[in-house]
C-alpha cells in the first residue's frame, strides 16, 4: 500500500493537529491520556461527550465515504489522523466498535435499509456497539458458536450466551454471530445479526479482571428479539461477514495503537533508567529488541493497509499481541520490587496495568493458536490441522 504523503497531506496534518490543540482544552483538557485497554472505565461519560464533540466538528468516521457521513480520507490521511490523535494524547474514543468495525462492515455488506438506519447514528455517536462473537465453548473458534436464532414472523428470536464482550454495559446494540439454520455445523448456517441490547431478553454480567475493572462482560440472550431484516450480508453468510469485520478491526487504526505502544515503551525505558536496570546488559538487549520489533509491527501494518485485511491480518495480531505482553513482563522486571506494591484500594500504576491487562492480548480477538492455524492453512496453504 502506497502511503507516500504529499503537500495536501501535510496541510491535513496541520489541520487535525491544530484542531486537537484548540479543542483538547477547557472541559476536555483533563481527558488527555484517559481510557484505552484496561482503562475503559476512566471518565467514560466525559469521553462520550468528547467523542460527540468530535462528531459535531466533522471528525468522526473519517475513513467512511462522504455519502455515509465520513470524510472519505485517503489511506495516507487516515494514517496521519490516527498518528496525530495518538501524539496529542487524546482520550480513547468510546465509539471504536461502531466506527471501526460494524460501520465499515455495513458499508461493505449491509443493505440500503441497514445503512440508512444505523450509519447516521454511529457517525453521530448516538448509538454505541459491542461485539457478540466469543462463547464459553467457542472462544476464538467462531465456527463453533452455539447461540441460536429462530425466525418468528418479522423477528429473530435469539437464545444463547456470549462472553468477553467488551463494553457491553455501555452499548445500545450488539452485532451477534448466531446459528440460524437448525442442524448446521461449523461455518455453515451462521448469520450476522444486529441486536438491540436494551430489551428484557438481554442480561449483561460484568467480569472482574486482574486490573479490578470490568471492561469484559458475559451477555445472556433469553428469547431476545431483533427485526428479521437486521441480518447483514444475507442469511447463512455470517461467517464471511464476521471475517470481514475482523479484517477492518486490524486496519489503519492499528497505527494509533502502535504510537500508544511507543509511549508505553518509552515509559519502560524511563523506569529502567530510574531504577538502574538500564545498566544490566541483558535488559538493554531486551529493550533494543523490543524497539526493533515495534518497528517491524509498524512496517507490516503499512505494507498491508487498505480495505478488508483478510487472512493476512492474523500476522499482525500475532505480532502485536506477543510484543505487548512481553513489554508488560519487561516493565515489571525493570520496576523491580516496586512492581509488587500497589496503592490504597488496589490502585495500580500505568505499568502494572500494562502488565496485567496485556496478559489477555494473546487470547482476545483470536488466540495465538487460532492465528497460527489461519496463517498456516489459509496464507501458507499448509495441510489442515486434524479436527476432533
Folded structure, characterized:
This protein starts with 6 loop residues before the first helix and ends in a 9-residue tail after the last helix. It has helices at 7-23, 44-56, 75-87, 96-109, 112-123, 238-249, 254-275, 281-303, 313-335, 350-357, 368-379; strands at residues 129-132, 148-152, 155-162, 173-179, 190-196, 202-206, 217-227, 231-232. The mean pLDDT is 89. The protein contains eleven helices and eight strands. The longest helix has 23 residues, at 281-303. The chain is of the alpha+beta class.
Largest sheet: 4 strands, mixed
Number of strands: 8
Beta-strand content bin: 5-15%
Cα distance spanning the termini: 39 Å
The whole-angstrom Rg is: 21 Å
Q: Helical segment tally?
A: 11
Order of helices and strands: HHHHHEEEEEEEEHHHHHH
Mean pLDDT across all residues, rounded? 89
Helix content: 40-55%
Note poorly predicted spans: none
How would you classify the helix and strand content by structural class?
A: alpha+beta
Shape by Cα distribution:
globular
**Biggest sheet: strands side by side, in what order?**
1-4-5-8
